[in-house]
Structures are given as structure tokens and as C-alpha cells.
Amino acid sequence: MRSILVVLLSCIGAFPPQSSCQASAKQAGQSTAQSVASKLTPQQERGLRLLKAAESEAAGLAPDMGAFVLWRASYAYAKVDSRKSESVANDAFTTSLAIENSSDNSSDAQCGSEGSEGDIKSWVQEHVLSAMVQKEQIAKTEELLPQATASVRRQITTKLVKYYLGKNDIARAESFLLELTDSEDYPFDAAADLLLKTRAEQSADRMTVFNQALTNFEQHDNPDRIGGDDFGNFIERTWTHVPSALVLEAIDKVLEQAKAHQSRSHYSMTSAAGGVTLDSAYEFRLFQLLPVLEELDKDKADSLLRDNAGMQARMSKYPQGMKSLGGIQSWGISYDDASPSPSGGAGAPSGAAQQAIEAQVMQRMSEIEKETDKDPSQALGDALGLPVQGPNAKERSPRAQALIEIADAVSRKKPSVAKSALDEIVKIQDQLSPAQMIGLSKVPRIYLDLGDEEGARKVLKALLKAAEKLYGEDTDAEDPNKAFKGNWPSSNLWRRCVQVAAQISPTLADDIISDIPDPEIAATEKAAYASSLLGAESEPFKISECRKKWAGFSASEN
Length: 558
Fold this sequence. Notes:
CATH class of one domain: Mainly Alpha
Radius of gyration: 27 Å
Strand content: 5-15%
Number of strands: 5
């Protein structure tokens, strides 16, 4: 203990010793940095050089691309320098503040207006702040939160409610939930967590939360908010913790809303326990809430069932509604009057028919996935029976997807089966659209796992051709992709190509980046390349398209 006190005393004496202490601290920091650097492999050192180049280029880019590049760089730094990662993430957040919001009155507002799927400003901010919450940097999160977009404030406030619930700080969780009382995106899931955490003797507090959720549901009459984190799910989770009369009142209002907004919509859900298609929002709500009504008011439940013959059959098969299905594996909504998909045409299935076909294909793919562990060869044979094209040609090829999953699952224990599955994919790749080729981006990596570099290079070459075609579509003068460029399908596929090329040869990855015709996209791919070299965890990603007649957004595999 004495030696420690001596050091402390020397640091709180006159000014010269204090300066000496500061210098010592700085030297210690430099020593630590040098120590980290000395432990880096040549590959990682190359990755860090790339990141510095990407950071430098980000400063000269438009705010949206600059924030995006910095955000991606923060992920790449995470494994080798956590402090640098956090610093760059903060820079990404700061840069995002300069991104201009799209006007809600513009023709392409859905491509990037605040809160939309294409809103890159909110995308960056949400991921930066979410990472802070995950790392429990709560003070920093709460400091930056007021500067974020309204949609991000709602999302992160929801996360803070859940964070404080996890810490059993009920009062703090309540205060943050109160901020969202009038929000159109009220966090019913977090509210349910809070209600369930509240002790039984605090019945008044439970009723306050329930009434808050009910009031929000009534004020924001949004018939499209159905499934997942919705008010119906809130009722399912909390009905045993509040008075029955209150629950029955809430169910009545949910069913009334569903009836008032009758639409020609169809909801399909599949799980390991089976699948169900519901032909309206009202049927969805019945399927969701009849099990609760059975417990609280059986006469009313029976009356509702008598009025709906189709629901009688569904409830007979799945008496607990959603709970009977268990974990939902796929979920879809279709509309009878929906515009045909870009791949559709005369005779193309639509509405309920398309949903039924997709549900059947998903069910078959689920069965093949289970079979893979027991009998890989049989699973391979069954996968070859799947269609190359599904009902929607913009979606992944069912056959290719099943073959990839088989190859990935058995590459170590059954390499011969994995190789056969990959070779079958190569046979059908000419039948796939450039967009569907994105789904084949795992194939080169699996070939490398099998020690087949030649196979990996051949598929990589095909993927690069697909990326070029996608870029042509993204920049089509007649109907350009107005979504954020960093999330274009072509950007996504080039990213995947660069990452797998890095496993083959640094020169190959460099060549791919240098051949990208768009400097802004090339800058983002440098960060992706650096991530691969540093062995960093892949960052979340999305694929975005915004055309004259339709917009599409999907999560991409990391």
C-alpha cells in the first residue's frame, strides 16, 4: 500500500510533478497502443491502414455516405481497438446530424423520410445509440439522445425502458415509458414487460400501465399495426395481471377497430407446429384473442365462433391461437387488390393464392432443414425437388437457398454431400436473376471451407457479374434506385464479394474495389474489406430499393 501512496502523493504536489504525471499517463497510453500494435498480424495492420484511408475519404463525402462509412469503420475497429471504435461511432453520429431530412411531400419520401425504411440518418443514429445501450454507456446515450431524430428517440427510449427494467429500476423505466405515452410507435412490448415486473400489491400501477397502453391504442387508430409488438400481443401477455373487466373492454375495442377497417388482407404464419392463413384483420384478432375470451367470457367467445365458420376450424386445430403455433418462422401479409410484383404478369399468383404457395414452400424447406441433421443425402435429394423460382422472382430461389443451407450445415461432417449441393447450385445460377444471385454470396466461402479455391473463384466471378448488372439497374436513367446508395443491392453484393475475396487473396480484394465504378461505394467497401482483415464482427446491413412504382427493403445477412 505504501508504494501506491507514494505515487499518488507525487501526483498531487506542486505543478511540475503534476505535469510529470500527465506525461507519464500519456506515455503509458502510447505504450499500450504500441503494445497492441506489436500484437497485430500483417493482415490486421493492412486492415488498419485501409480503415484510416476510409476515414480520410469519409470527410470528403456527402454527410449520408460519410456517416455510413464511419459507422461501418467503427465495427471494423471493435476487435482491435474498442476505444477507437467508440470514437469513430461518435463521429458517425455527429456526421449524421448534417444529413438533410427528405420532405414528406416529395414523390420519393418513402425512400428516406424520417422513420421510413430508407432513412439512413435514423439508421446510423439508431445503431450507434443501440450499441451504447448494449455496452451500458447509459450516460452517453442519454446525452446524445435529444439530438437524434424523433423516430430514433422513440426506439432508444424503448431500449432504455427495457434496460432499466433489467436493472430492476422500475421508477426510471416508468419515467421513460411515460415519455412515449402519445407516440404513434408506442412500445407495447416494453409496456408489457413493465407491467409484468410490477409487484402484485401494486395493482394500481399495473392498471395505470394497462390504461396507458389502451389509451394509446385508441388515440392512434392504426389498422396496419398488427402482429408482433402490437396491442393485441400486449393483451395476450398481461391479461392475467389486471381486472377482467378492463381486459374485456380492451378486447372489445380491438375487435371493433378490426371490423371498422375491414380490408382485403390476408395474414399467413408458419411454424414447426403448422401454418394458418387468416383472411382479414378481424380474423387475425379473433385468432389472437379468442383464447383469452374463452377464459373470461366463454359465452361471448362461443357466440363469435358461431358467427365465423372458418375460425371454428382454425381454433379446433389451434385451440390456443398464436401459442399453439409456437415460434413463428415466417410471416406475411398480402392484399387482393395489391399491384403485381415486378416479376408478376398474366397468370401470376397474387393475394391469398401467392401466400398459400409461399407457405407451402416454406413448410417444405423447414422439413428439409430438419432432415439435414438426420440424413444429409436424403435432404439433398429433397432439395432438388424444390422449385428454382418461387411465386415472387425477386425473392431468393427456394432450391438454391435449401442447397446452400445443406452445404453450410454439413461441410465438415459430410464434405462430399456439401460439395454436391454446391455443384447443384452452380448448375442453376444462370436461371437466377441478379437480385437472386445475392443469395449465393455464401457459396464461395463454403467452397473455401471445403478446400476448393477454384470453385470459390468461379462463383465469385459470377457474383461480380451480377453486381455489375445490379449497379446498372440501380443507376438506370429511366427508373433509378432512389434509396440510399450505401444500401443498394449492388453495394451489398460488392461488399460480400470483397469480403470473400479477402479470404482468397489481398490482391483480388484490392482489384475488386478498384474496379467498382462508383467512388462512394468503393469507399464503403474499403471498410468492409478492413472488417474481414481484422476479423471483426460483421455489421448489420439492409438492402434498399425505391423505384417509381414500388419500394422494397430487406435485412441482409451479416
